[in-house]
Design goal:
Length: 135
């Protein structure tokens, strides 16, 4: 009986430590949650940023239209879907993808490769959202 009392008191002490650790963890998690929510409320309450974000016009496959921003020159293709460096990187990626094998051990189709390569190579909104199709 002495052994059972000692083991039960040991288990009780361990469960108290566990509960203390859980309480501490809960307090810390709740405090960080409240802190994070407060910072989000501060950001959302800033009217200058929200008005600026409302004025931007987003169109799929095109660069965003930002009021007050100087328009690009006619021949400047940087950051667009016709950007030579973007097209070169898509081409290189597609070639490597088609010559390799997929996770199932089979070769990948051109459309599968183009979809994954677009996600890898795009650097702007326009490059990431335009519908890319194999020829």
């Amino acid at each position: 009986t002495k052994l059972s009392r000692a083991s039960s008191s040991l288990l009780l002490a361990q469960s108290d430590d566990t509960m203390l650790n859980r309480r501490e963890w809960s307090k810390r998690a709740f405090a960080s949650l409240i802190t994070g929510a407060g910072s989000i409320a501060t950001i959302a309450a800033n009217p200058e940023q929200s008005n600026a974000a409302d004025d931007i016009i987003w169109k799929t496959g095109k660069s965003p239209q930002i009021p007050g921003q100087k328009p690009k020159e006619k021949g400047d293709a940087k950051g667009t879907k016709k950007d030579p460096s973007f097209l070169r990187s898509i081409s290189d990626c597609k070639t490597k993808c088609e010559t390799g094998y997929g996770p199932d051990g089979l070769s990948r189709s051109a459309s599968e490769c183009l979809a994954s390569c677009q996600d890898i190579c795009c650097t702007t909104y326009e490059q990431c959202t335009f519908a890319i199709t194999p020829r």
